[in-house]
Structures are given as C-alpha cells and as structure tokens.
Amino acid sequence: MSTMNISLPEAMKSFVDQQVSQGGYGTSSEYMRELIRKDQERLQLRTLLLAGAASRPTQPVDAAYFANLRRQLPAADKTRPKA
To answer: For residue 21, is pLDDT > 60?
Structure first.
C-alpha cells in the first residue's frame, strides 16, 4: 500500500477527526479510503447512466416483456411461489 500525505485546514481536520470518532472508523485513513471508494462508485454509476442514456431505445418494457422473461426461466424457478 502506498502512503499519501495531505494538508488540511484545521476546520477540515477537526471534521475528519469527528467523522472518525462518530462513524466507527479506526483511523482517518480508513475514513478517507471510504470517501474515495464512494466517489469511485458514484463515477462508475454516472458512467453507466450516461451510457444508458446514449444507447438506442429498445422494445417497450411492459407486461408482455416480463411474461417473455418468465418463459425463459429454468423449470426449477417456475416452482417458486409468485410474489
């Protein structure tokens, strides 16, 4: 694992320290890693949403569409009770 040092104004450092103590993090590094992971997930979701928005329209998603999906399920899944 690599090390990165950052400089924060005192108010931000106090905020991070507060989040660590109240959020169940062991260290400020754990808190920062969590923030970075969440940002990575946000960017990945944004990329997927933009790709979906730019994609061509497909067939309508209606009752017939879902009925067709159910017909494609293996026989074992058809024995499950319906919701």
So the answer is: yes
Q: Where are the alpha helices (DSSP H) in the chain?
A: 10-23, 28-54, 63-72
Cα–Cα distance, 33 to 53 (Å, whole number): 30
The 10s digit of each residue's pLDDT in 30-58 is 999 999 999 999 999 999 999 999 999 88
pTM here is 0.65
Spatial contact of 31 and 25, defined as CB atoms under 8 Å apart:
yes
Smallest CA-to-CA distance from 15 within 3, 38, 31 is with: 31
Please report, for residues 1, 13, 26, 39, 78, the alpha-carbon distance to residue 36 in angstroms, rounded to integers and kept in the order given: 15, 17, 16, 5, 42
